[in-house]
């Protein structure tokens, strides 16, 4: 198996293909607006929506860099800023999810059509190549998907029995 095929498999498992952990599209499918903004009583954890905003920030930033559109990439002074929510409305929750799904798929398309030498070319504004950045993003996504599932379980929104 070549590196692109392996990475495409990892990338898909973060969005819409079942693997060892549930893909984000399925995890978020039944999350209500109220569940998306909920935080545990101590409020030290981020909400589901804040986590999705964080994932979107980094994926959108990399997409803009891959496309050479660095002027359009999202900006944050510190990592905590990447969890910032838009105005808390049901419509904005839906928009955040849809934008994340779109950006994730666009990065997957770039990966799918990349030639071998493209995979190892350094990305403008990054220290690493496309293959290393997308590998790291996939691991980052998997980590936060686990947090989102945990928050869902804390709210009783996660099914008691799953086929995993």
UniProtKB/TrEMBL annotation:
InterPro entries associated with the record: DinB-like, DinB/YfiT-like
Ranges for domain DinB-like: 24-148
Protein name per its UniProtKB record: DinB-like domain-containing protein
Organism of provenance: Lentibacillus amyloliquefaciens
